[in-house]
Amino acid sequence: MIQPQSAVRTALVAVYNVAYSFDREFSYIIPEEMSEKAVAGVRVIVPFGRGGRKRAGLILEVKETVPDRKLKPLVSVVDSKPVISDEMMKMIFWLKENTFCTYYDAVRTILPSGMNIRVNEKYELCEGAVLSSLSGEELNLVCFLKNASSKREFDELLDSSSNPEKAPVIESLIEKGVIRRVSEASQKVNDKFIRMVKLTDRYISDPLMFRLTPKQQQAVKLLEENGSASVKEVCYICSITAAVIKNLIRTGAAEEYSLPDYSMPGEEDFEPDAVGSIVLSESQDKVFRRVAEKIDESVPHCFLLHGVTGSGKTSVFVKLIEKTLESGKQAMLLIPEIALTPQIVKNFRRCFGATVSVIHSNLSLSQRLEEYRRISSGMSRIVIGTRSAVFAPLDNIGLIIMDEEGERSYKSDSAPRYSTVSVAKERCRTHNAVLLLGSATPSVESYYYAQKGIYELLELTERYNKSELPHVEIVDMNEERSRGNMTEYSDVLVNEINANLQSGEQTILLLNRRGYHTFISCSGCSTPLYCENCSIPYTYHKTNNSLVCHYCGNIAPVPSECPSCGKTVFKQTGFGTQKMEEQLSELFPTARILRMDADTTFSRYAYEKNFKDFADKKYDIMVGTQMIGKGLDFPDVTLVGILSIDKSLFSGDFRSYERTFSLITQVAGRSGRGGKPGRAYLQTFMPDHYVLNLAAHQNYQGFYDEEIALRKTLIFPPVCDVCVIGVSSVSDAAAASASAVILSIIKEIVASEKIKFPLRVLGPAQSGIARINGKYRYRLILKCKNNSQTREFIRKILLKTAEYREFSNVNIYADMNGEII
Predict the structure, then answer these.
(1) Rounded to an integer, what distance in angstroms lies between the CA atom of residue 648 and that of residue 429?
(2) Which residues are CB-neighbours of 666 under 8 A, at least 6 positions away?
(3) What is the pTM of this model?
(4) Among residues of the chain, what percentage have pLDDT more than 70?
């Protein structure tokens, strides 16, 4: 009689770095000695693939199964306790279902980067191994291994990367039991220091004794002028690599040292009466009471708070968070830009002290890990941060606030391609919490849902203390040109800036283009200087006298002659924030000018320092890109200038009108927030465009009515969903072929399964920018309804396309309601 086999404990594991088409829950036997530690939510090391190479994974589930000889055992358990809560475990499956990512993509998004596991495979000699059957080459290698003077030398002898012929010998020794692989798992965490460099006393006393290369001389000149700089700043400004700095240090001309990284303020900022000193207006109190009512009910609910710029939404947020904490729950405040973090964090730490944690990408890995642990332990009850903060390990959420909810930075553009508002809704459902979406310019989708009753609409129609909204005047630059003014600054704007300088008031100027010249072309053949990796021209940066691609980050020197025709004269057109700063210095020689763009905010503390200096009136004029356009509050700013905004109307995305309207409205709203009347000047060559006129009048309702009519006519969100199936490859032919095959697969599935749900397919076609970072890009656009049936249809498309081996080097992804340019 055959005895029934006893069940064994099996772990279902999400494995790191698995292709989407191959991703699933992989089964592994749990060895007896790991039975207590191997539970759902812990990370493990597992053998994977035919070679059994070791990879990191996360146990998703443990269950009893019938023994299966094909199953491999776990190698080791990394964590002593689960690092993924029950809620976040459900979130992993939710992300997998809704964003077409792998299980481990979801894991890596939920956990801070500092917790990422690195698996290192080493080798060691087996004791008592029989050497008589070894070949001469194998014996020779074993002899060298036994005589190795150090572990490092031992590992180098077994490194087959530099000598591929050694690989079969190593594999043979493993099969014969002479050596064995040993896996080591380590957690990657950066330290809390910034690498700095300065000139040595030796160089300063006698620079002639050093023979430096031209690139080293550039770095030395910068250090002579500034005393010291971070390694990253020197590399950017001088257009050199870190190797140049390293060699400079070797010569003895420079030395490296460390500075403590930006540390978060704590209890010292706390003012016990700060919250109590906030007095809400009648309209603010009405909003507060309605949201507080829902917080007390502990039922999931979504509000849309539409408040004009300066209406005091932040004060309402503070009071609601206080209410949430008093009820024993936790709160989360999400913001769209890192640039907004310093002001907001300072305000909230003043109100709530060290119970506030901050999460955003400009923190070091160790800082993010520290904040994650503070939140997990319950030390922090308020989380403030950008998109990734929505996954913060709070376990009793009562309120999630999304400020400026329509910003595109809330949508992830890499796997998992999630929408922050969708994740926030899911967490509110889990915790029976309230979601409050706030903005002066809500997304068209959110306002549409509010009109439909899906969200509850709350409004603040007046500025706090009933101060006036800034007067916005449209300046026709065509008339400026006809009067002979060929500069980028209208006469009225120049006069107003002068008036502000004389009265001691501050000015903000928005130009959403960084760099110096935005376009350089040959004066002979008119061919632009294109990035070698992208189908887009370089931007000239005067600071480091280089050409910079703003898409892939490639830096190149300005050529001495045209690559196409050999001519040596180039023409430069367009202007960015660098040129703007230079021109303003010439126009207003006594003005103190601050430039804020991606090139001036390298360090983690640059935002805080620069904005604090501006608030302290150390600068008269702040120029910058969109990072200065939203959420900032400077009482002495009474003038805003908006330059060269026309191009944003035609970016190729159906949301371009919405984003232009929002940017104009928001940046104009930075003016007149301190009691003094504010004014803004919108310079344009299209003074009759309805979007610009509605923005000038800050008429959101009028803009929404126009935009929703257009969206309904063209069938774009919110009346449908849009899924982009993206294709990219280093080969243009392969990308084009793959996109054509995807279309044929769509037709095949529709026909064979008799698809009845609404579906429109556009494309395939090249993306708006056909090549980025060396990869050619194509896309198909599916107008559909985002439900389980449609997502299953999209999954089938991705899986069927993966069956074509000729497309193994082609990247194919699906992005629901993402960018379509």
Answers:
(1) 37
(2) 309, 404, 440, 441, 629, 630
(3) 0.83
(4) 95
